[in-house]
Amino acid sequence: MCRGLEGPSAGLVAMRLARKHYGTYTSQRFMQGVHHPDDAYIDKITGLKYARGQMNWLVKKGERLPEDSPRKVYIECFAEFKMDDDREFGAQLVGCDADEAPRRYAEDSKFIQTRNYSTSLKLIYLGAYNICRVRADLSTVPMYKFTKARSGLDAEEYYIAEFRLEATFCSGVVEWSFIFDGKEYGSVSVSYDK
Questions:
Q1: What integer is the mean pLDDT of 157-172?
Q2: Can you list the positions of beta strands (E) in the chain?
Q3: In the prediction, which pLDDT does 96 show?
Q4: How far apart are CA 54 and CA 26, in angstroms?
Q5: Angstrom distance (rounded) from CA 101 to CA 19
Q6: How many structural domains are present in the chain?
Q7: pTM to 2 decimals?
Q8: Which residue, of 2, 16, 123, 126, has the fewest CB within 10 Å?
Q9: Where residue 7 falls among pLDDT bands split at 50, 70, 90?
Q10: pLDDT score at 35
Q11: Which of 53, 123, 44 is nearest to 85 (CA)?
Q12: CB atoms < 10 A from the CB of 138, how many?
């Protein structure tokens, strides 16, 4: 659970506005002319070219978050692993205070100075930054539920897992669930970036 993302509440609140953009970075199949060449990499298992660090904004800054109907968003996750590998996977929740959120996590970022109503100076970070890491333990899912695949010259076997991390925004709090094959499994751990 991520607490305090929207600040303290005083009394009854019918509607909150998101104070920043919330999202996660993903990898996408690389497309020449669309993705930045610095983001390109070759997947070790499939051999396909991808672009890392592409932002997927789940909640936009200023978006209304009604208290009486919590907002649910999903981070679609894809993991490849071998039989003896660790099966804990997850995603990074990212924030951005700027009015317009960047398309890439690695976009050039800068600080600007603003004055608030009390005339004190405040620094606002315009780029994307990490808020917390959300991880699901896939060892609670039976092995037969994963897709088997083979790749490479030796046709080594590996497994594919597609799952969701579900975030529920309510009362200035984010609660997390791990969904696999339409069912909630195990627990989700959250660690905050300093």
A1: 88
A2: 2-3, 15-17, 21-29, 40-42, 49-59, 64-66, 71-81, 88-96, 111-115, 121-125, 129-137, 147-151, 156-170, 173-180, 183-184, 188-192
A3: 93
A4: 5
A5: 13
A6: 1
A7: 0.74
A8: 123
A9: low
A10: 93
A11: 44
A12: 24
What's the one-letter identity of residue 65? L
Q: Is the pLDDT of residue 24 over 80?
A: yes
- Token pair of 125, please? 């970070």
| Alpha carbon 12 to its chain's center | 30
Contact 11, 67 (CB under 8 A): no
The pLDDT > 90 percentage for the chain reads 48
Distance between start and end Cα atoms, the chain: 16
Residue type at position 94? V
In eight-state DSSP terms, residue 11 is: S
Domain carrying residue 54: 2-192
Half-sphere CA count of 32, side-chain side, radius 13 A: 0
Pairing of strands 156-170, 71-81: antiparallel
